[in-house]
Amino acid sequence: MRYLETRKARIEIIPMIDIMLFLLVFFAMLTLRMIPTSGHVTKLPTSSSAATIPPPKLLVEISADGSLLVENRSLTPAQLTELLKSRGSSKTAVTIAGNQTATLQQVMSVIDAIKAGGATEIGLATRIKAGS
Fold first, then answer.
1. Dihedrals φ, ψ of 129, to 5°?
2. pLDDT tens digits for 1-51?
3. Domain map (residue ranges) of the chain
């Protein structure tokens, strides 16, 4: 009679593979939902009234040193105006993603360049303020 039969312990690996696959998919989907296009701007200003808008047709990033990044190219405000004029549509949705340290003057010069290019739909990218 075998009352106290010892059995060898087994580690099931299939559930662990499933969990790792779910984590991989989760983090891949999470990174795809980050702020548009290139992700250069890391510290957006915060706002308690931030709202979700559709993805922009053009993203203008103002870096900490004041340079403009558009479609992974560094441009001046005059070049930005020419780029918008060459696109020709006044319905081009432009979103400005400014660094937290960008000055109001830098933001206003970008807005002026965008308006001179003929775009009328301008949005400002922000993060939702923590605790709101």
1. -65, 135
2. 566 777 787 888 888 899 999 999 888 877 776 545 444 545 667 777 777
3. 1-132
SS (H, E, C) the chain: CCCCCCCCCCCCCHHHHHHHHHHHHHHHHHHHCCCCCCCCCCCCCEECCCCCCCCCCEEEEECCCCCEEECCEEECHHHHHHHHHHHCCCCCEEEEEECCCCCHHHHHHHHHHHHHCCCCEEEECCEECCCC
Q: φ and ψ at 58, to 5 degrees?
A: -145, 130
What is the distance between the alpha carbons of residues 107 and 109, in angstroms, rounded to a whole number?
6
What pLDDT, on a 0 to 100 scale, did the predictor assign at position 17? 92
pTM for this entry: 0.59
44 neighbors 125 (Cβ within 8 angstroms):
yes
Judge contact between 95 and 123, C-beta under 8 A.
yes
Distance CA 78, CA 114 (A): 9
Longest dimension (CA), the chain: 93
Burial 61-73 (b: 16+ CB within 10 A, else e): bbbeeeebbbeee
